[in-house]
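Predict structure. Chain length: 176.
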Amino acid sequence: MDPTAAAALLWYFAYGSNLDPRTFLGRRRMRPVQSRVAVLDGWRLVFDLPVGGERAVANLLAVPGEHTVGVAYAISDEQARHLDRTEGVPRAYRREAVDLRTTQGGGLRAFTYVSPHRQPGRKPSRRYMGLLLHGARHHGLPDEWVDTLRAFPLAVDERSAQLELPLEQNPGREDP
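Prediction complete.
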């Protein structure tokens, strides 16, 4: 790679649905030059950005002593601007400059997304968590982190819950 082009690359730290190649490469049409498993120290993965019902998508919360594992993608400035648009910057998320450590032992300066629109007590949907787990396995994130993801309680899917509601009994009619 041309040294000038390498200097123009930005590192983006993904911890949510962008871990999944079907989302990042497919739906968002991103083509990173490279990717690395990375750890963001001092931040906890939370699900507090509301998307309906009790559901939420991933977010980060600054907590000393905690960490979040994800993937650092090397992308161009143009790709980063495209990613900002797909992530709803500055409406839903804002860019946050972070320092990462890679599982290979190096460090990276990167950006990630953090949202101020928090509603604690929310949960990821089964479908959304499936994206994170698929991405974690695809990139070879540590088994301990995959276990951490699996331990998050899941939200009730309001759509399927509505199908399971018992039919209202006919007033004035006794059941057989």
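Summary: The chain has one domain: 3-163.
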